Amino acid sequence: MAEELKSLDDLKSAVAGTPAAAVEVAAPRTPQRDSLGRSYATGKRKDAVARVWIKPGSGKVVVNGKEMAVYFARPVLQMILRQPFSVAGVEGQFDVVATVAGGGLSGQAGAVKHGISKALQLYEPSLRAALKAAGFLTRDSRVVERKKYGKAKARRSFQFSKR
Q1: Rounded to an integer, what distance in angstroms lies between the CA atom of residue 55 and that of residue 68?
Q2: Which is more confident, 75 or 163?
Q3: What distance in Å separates the CA atoms of residue 124 and residue 94, rounded to the nearest whole number?
Q4: pLDDT of 113-158, one tens digit each?
Q5: Is the pTM for the entire model greater than 0.85?
Q6: What is the pLDDT of residues 54-112, one digit of tens each?
Q7: How far is residue 69's CA from residue 96's CA, in Å, rounded to a whole number?
Q8: Backbone phi and psi for residue 11, each to the nearest 5 degrees, phi listed first
Q9: Which member of 10, 53, 63, 156 lies 3.0 to 4.6 Å from 152 by CB, making a disulfide possible if both were Cys?
Q10: Is 9 left (phi over 0), alpha (psi -120 to 50) or beta?
Q11: CA of residue 96 relative to chain centroid, distance
Q12: Neighbours of 124 (CB within 10 A)
């Protein structure tokens, strides 16, 4: 029976065009940390770009040199920044230092969230599955549509006058 299974595997690999020994599982991901024990990632949303460093700590978040509650005054934006930690189940275990530029506050919060998610999965690869399932590792590619000539805005036409 074992020989039949072995020959079935050989048959499958022959059909796939690869030798049976060449079919292997991908190497497990290794944590990427610098000499200070931090992980770095870049997050983006709309026109905002965030550079994010995470390291083990007490859960302190600093954005552009200010506390999270000062920089992102709206509770919704603070909630957005905390989402990756709650999904990964590591609330209060990492300190975050982020510098963010471009766009508005909402886009900046989304960029920092994207950067935190990427940095978390680089620091601890086992968190990748939860973050990916929640969609936090995917860059939100929606950007403002450009203005076209002959139009008032991107799609809005000038007011029509019959006479």
Answers
A1: 16
A2: 75
A3: 11
A4: 999 999 999 999 999 999 999 999 999 999 999 999 999 999 999 9
A5: no
A6: 999 999 999 999 999 999 999 999 999 999 999 999 999 999 999 999 999 999 999 99
A7: 13
A8: -65, -45
A9: 156
A10: alpha
A11: 15
A12: 18
Q: Which residues pair with 41 in a beta bridge?
A: 52
Task: Measure the CA–CA gap between 145 and 153, rounded to whole angstroms.
Answer: 9
Q: Which amino acid is at 72?
A: F
- 61 three-class SS: strand
Residues in the chain: 163
Which residue type occupies 137? L
Query: How many Å apart are CA 48 and CA 142, to the nearest integer?
Result: 12
Contact criterion met (CB below 8 Å) for 114 and 43: yes
Count of CB atoms situated within 10 Å of the CB of 48: 21
Q: d(Cα 108, Cα 105) in Å, to the nearest integer? A: 5
Cα–Cα distance between 54 and 23 in angstroms, integer? Answer: 36
Tokens of 99: 């510098």
How is residue 51 written in tokens? Answer: 């550079």
Helix (H) or strand (E) holding 84, with range, is helix 75-88
If one counts every other C-beta atom within 10 angstroms of the C-beta of residue 134, the result is 15
Residue 48: helix, strand or coil by DSSP?
strand
